[in-house]
Amino acid sequence: MIVNLTPHPVRIYASDRPDGIDDLEPGLLWVIEPEDKPARLGVIPLSTEYRDGIPVELVQYGHAQGLPRRKAGVSYVVSLPVALALAPRRSDLLVPYREVRNGTGTVIGCRQLAQPV
């Protein structure tokens, strides 16, 4: 079972679907609808410093919010930042891979899912 914890539907297309088509239907194989609450990467602000007079916040990333515990047989589609932050500890996280783009270059789906390691 694959659960979508991104804030938008994940459309998976055939590998031969060309980019540059605005119609969402050609080559569409699956749509994984999002859950109500997406997984987010939590941020902990540590301190502020100034570089050339511009405030720069030092922050710590890596604490996922809205991500369920592992469950046998379940994989979770999450954003790339969430997956990269947790890859060493979570083998159940997937990300969209080999993106499909419309005529203006906006990502509308992917051809595969990937597991960051």
Largest sheet: 4 strands, mixed
Along the chain, the helix and strand elements come as EEEEEEHEE
Mean pLDDT, rounded to whole units? 96
Radius of gyration: 17 Å
Please give the order of strands in the largest beta sheet. Answer: 1-6-7-8
Say how many strands there are.
Answer: 8
Helix content: under 10%
Shape: globular
- Low-confidence segments: none
Strand content: over 45%
Category from helices, strands and their pairing = mainly beta
* First-to-last CA distance: 20 Å
Count of helical stretches: 1
Question: What's a quick, concise take on this entry?
Answer:
This protein is mainly β and 117 residues long. It contains one helix and eight strands.
What labels describe this entry?
48% strand; 8 strands; 117 residues; single chain; mainly beta; 6% helix; four-stranded mixed β-sheet; two-stranded antiparallel ribbon; globular
Explained architecture:
The protein has 117 residues and is mostly beta strands. 6% of the residues lie in helices and 48% in strands. The chain has one helix and eight strands. A hairpin with a 2-residue loop joins β4 and β5. It is globular, with a radius of gyration of 17 Å.
Fold blueprint:
Blueprint: E1 2-4, E2 10-13, E3 28-32, E4 40-51, E5 54-65, E6 75-77, H1 80-86, E7 93-101, E8 107-114
Parallel strand pairs: 1-6, 6-7
Antiparallel strand pairs: 2-3, 4-5, 7-8
